[in-house]
Design brief:
The chain is mainly beta. It has two domains: 100 residues, no CATH class; 234 residues, Immunoglobulins (Immunoglobulin-like), CATH 2.60.40. β7 and β8 form a beta hairpin. The longest helix has 14 residues. It is globular and about 50 Å long.
Length: 341
């Protein structure tokens, strides 16, 4: 498949990154449009499935191997974690592709934060696919214009079934239990995904996931800022930063949290349901602290000192700050930053 990407005025779009994804949301082809908006993804087998992602207003002309073309006006946008099976024609196959900036190209000021919390455990055999999904959200957000801030929160109630998760925490189990009460759910379970503090996302229900993400992207948010994260010169286990949040127009006070998370964690599981598997995690929460409150109608501005566990490499750490209604309830704003290198 090859084609050309142009804006609504017909001008070529340079640097767009069309991608093809399979039904597991794994990128199987990727290209970058040239100065003329042209791109090529190579030969595509008929029947191959794609996950369409959100596309900015543009025109995409997708060319099949047989040389025919189909143009689609994308003024009406759609978010796809849902499977797209395009129709065949006598001349070949045409598919919609993605035009969105990479994570690095989305500035924190322009991006709309969406907080995705995954409650997981290395002792749960159903969790590795959800862990992989979180990794994809972290590196390739489902649509442009939003900044997906992900947290992997390892619970401890699987620790007695043959394998103790080295990243598990009773405090994170308590946080999940609080969500269960606040959302009126029956019981905690893994893997469980909570989006913006108010919605439970079912990874196997694409339409429901679309709805959850659309609602999260449309919700107004308070701007949260994390100052430069510095490592104490005399003690590399100490990080210092400053957390700021704009005025809260909500009717109630809100809680301000800071999470310390490890960028990447690898684990060789020896026993339990995942015995013999090598697992990889991203954004693994090792510390979650409430540092204050954002009063209604006021701003928040506090210096913060964070203590890392001995042996933790500051280069493998990310700091996430977020403002949330008590309960835990609705997310009001969030930000992410890594220590200065």
């Amino acid at each position: 498949m090859s084609g050309k990407i142009v804006d609504p005025r017909g001008a070529p779009v340079t640097g767009a990154r069309p991608k093809l994804l399979n039904s597991a949301a794994v990128v199987i082809r990727e290209a970058k449009s040239d100065e003329q908006g042209g791109f090529s993804l190579g030969d595509i087998d008929p029947g191959e499935g794609l996950l369409p992602l959100r596309i900015f207003s543009c025109n995409i002309i997708a060319m099949s191997r047989c040389g025919s073309a189909r143009s689609s006006a994308c003024a009406v946008l759609f978010l796809g974690l849902s499977f797209l099976q395009t129709a065949s024609t006598a001349d070949g196959w045409a598919r919609q592709v993605e035009n969105k900036p990479s994570t690095a190209e989305i500035s924190s000021a322009d991006a709309h934060p969406i907080l995705v919390e995954l409650f997981t455990s290395e002792g749960c055999s159903s969790c590795p696919p959800a862990d992989a999904l979180l990794q994809r959200m972290d590196t390739s957000p489902p649509f442009a214009g939003a900044k997906f801030i992900v947290l992997s929160e390892h619970v401890d109630y699987w620790d007695h079934d043959g394998w103790k998760d080295p990243n598990s925490s009773a405090a994170l189990t308590e946080r999940q239990t609080a969500y269960v009460r606040a959302l009126g759910l029956k019981t905690p379970y893994t893997p469980q995904i909570i989006v913006d503090g108010t919605s439970e996302m079912r990874a196997n229900d694409s339409q429901q996931a679309d709805k959850v993400f659309h609602e999260a992207a449309a919700a107004p948010k308070v701007l949260v800022r994390i100052g430069e994260v510095s490592v104490d010169a005399g003690n590399p286990t100490v990080l210092r930063t400053r957390i700021e949040a704009d005025g809260n127009s909500d009717k109630h006070n809100a809680d301000v949290f800071v999470a310390v998370a490890l960028d990447r964690v690898e684990s060789q599981v020896l026993r339990g349901e995942n015995g013999g598997r090598h697992l990889t995690h991203v954004a693994v929460v090792v510390q979650l602290t409430k540092i204050g409150k954002l009063p209604k109608g006021k701003t928040f501005d506090e210096s913060v000192q964070l203590k890392l566990k001995p042996g933790t490499d500051p280069k493998n750490v990310r700091i996430v700050a977020f403002v949330q209604e008590p309960g835990p309830g609705r997310l009001l704003g969030a930000a992410l930053r890594k220590p200065a290198r």
